[in-house]
UniProtKB/TrEMBL annotation:
Naturally occurring in which organism (per UniProt): Flagellimonas chongwuensis
Domain Proline dehydrogenase positions: 77-377
Protein name, as recorded: Proline dehydrogenase
A GO biological process held by the record: L-proline catabolic process to L-glutamate
Keywords in alphabetical order: Oxidoreductase
PANTHER family per UniProt: PROLINE DEHYDROGENASE 1, MITOCHONDRIAL, PROLINE OXIDASE
Presence of the UniProt keyword Oxidoreductase in the record: yes
Keyword Oxidoreductase: yes
InterPro entries: FAD-linked_oxidoreductase-like (IPR029041), Proline_DH_dom (IPR002872), Proline_oxidase (IPR015659)
GO MF, one annotated term: proline dehydrogenase activity
Length: 397
């Protein structure tokens, strides 16, 4: 059973990569192991962009090309086609511009999302779209709605525009024959507002098929209970409920805010508790696939392997359209390509956008990698193994 998916098969994992690309990736992951360098990256890059230093070319050839599909849809096309043609790994185009704070930028993001929808509609290698709620509205407005803070007329009108954008992209996806859309993760103090909008979209568009997926961050201790709520919500309304299960990405920010404001941290106290919460969430969704579609978003090999075992034990086929696996572009290729090779539904998150605008996203990803040192170490181990394998194969020729 454990041999169904071999996560150590580096030949399959890196079949699309040249030796030069592997060496570049090895260098980058080696750098990510040094947390202090990552901390310096944000102020250094901000200074470089403000001073108009010629760094765009360097960034595009290094960290950007490793973790992003391109600056626009056409640049991404080559990447997503290569993923599918060489490994049957599908893609989610993730417009990763962060930090917008005004209606002009929010409307521009919506326009880009609608273009992604049209671009993706007839491409079988792109089954999902994704968007961050804070890409179409301010985090502060989501907070006020979540905490039931009174808003003035201007803020109420702003919230109405956010809701209109939220529905516009969900409606566009629902009007296609097969695309699905994920509402990405945000900070916990925005969740009541985000979850409310997401559930309202499920009510509208998840009657015939699973169109809208919520993201459930299981490093938050109460999110297992939210899965119970979603099950009851789906059953009561006779709809499908899509859920993307992740551990989470805002741990330090959540704890710092809780400490500063004097409330209990919503984050699980340690990694083992988080893992138990995550595993329990996966089990709960699997037990209720009559209501749920499951998207497992993780780079954790143990979690992927355990889900494979559970699917096998429960007689759920590898191609079952209710179960998906996903990893980020440029990371965990040993999971993505080997699972796709075994027949599972696998997608890569392929971030894209103008280099300057995507840098906050890339820095956040770098911080996550450096804070979870085992991820970078595992990437390094696999890259070294494949380079050595190729070296030995060359000698045999």
């Amino acid at each position: 059973m454990s041999d169904i998916v071999n996560f150590n098969n580096t030949e399959a994992a890196f079949a699309t990569k040249s030796n030069m690309e592997l060496k570049k990736a090895k260098f980058l992951f080696g750098m990510l192991e040094y947390g202090q360098l990552t901390k310096l990256a944000k102020p250094t890059l901000n200074f470089a962009f403000q001073a108009r230093l010629p760094i765009k070319g360097i960034l595009k050839k290094t960290i950007f090309s490793q973790f992003c599909g391109g600056e626009n849809l056409q640049e991404c096309k080559e990447q997503i086609d290569q993923l599918y043609q060489n490994g049957e790994v599908m893609s989610i185009l993730d417009y990763s511009v962060e930090g917008a704070e005004n209606d002009k930028n929010f409307d521009a993001t919506l326009d880009t999302l609608l273009k992604i929808c049209k671009f993706s509609e007839f491409q079988k290698q792109i089954p999902f779209l994704v968007f961050k709620p804070t890409g179409i509205g301010r985090l502060e407005i989501f907070r006020k709605v979540s905490e039931d803070v009174p808003m003035n007329l201007s803020e109420s009108e702003e919230w109405a525009r956010v809701k209109k954008r939220f529905e516009a992209i969900c409606r566009a996806v629902a009007e296609t024959d097969n695309l699905k859309i994920m509402v990405d993760a945000e900070e916990s103090w925005s969740h009541i507002a985000v979850d409310g909008l997401t559930e309202s979209m499920m009510l509208k568009y998840n009657k015939e098929r699973t169109v809208v997926f919520a993201t459930v961050q299981l490093y938050l201790s109460k999110k297992y209970d939210y899965l119970k709520h979603l099950k009851d919500f789906g059953k009561k309304n006779g709809i499908r409920v899509g859920v993307k299960l992740v551990r989470g990405a805002y741990m330090e920010k959540e704890r710092d805010r809780a400490l500063a404001r004097g409330y209990d941290s919503p984050v699980c106290p340690d990694k083992s508790t988080t893992d138990k919460n995550f595993d329990s969430g996966v089990d709960f969704v699997l037990e209720n696939l009559d209501v749920f579609d499951l998207f497992l978003g993780t780079h954790n090999e143990i979690s992927c392997r355990e889900l494979v075992k559970k699917l096998y034990t429960q007689g759920i086929g590898v191609t079952d359209s209710r179960v998906w696996f996903g990893q980020l572009f440029g990371m965990s290729d040993n999971i993505s390509f080997n699972m796709a090779k075994a027949g599972y539904n696998v997608v890569k998150y392929v971030p894209f956008g103008p280099i300057k605008d995507v840098m906050p996203y890339l820095i956040r990803r770098a911080e996550e990698n450096s804070s979870v040192g085992s991820q970078s170490s595992r990437e390094m181990e696999l890259l070294k193994k494949e380079l050595q394998r190729r070296k030995e194969m060359t000698k045999l020729r």
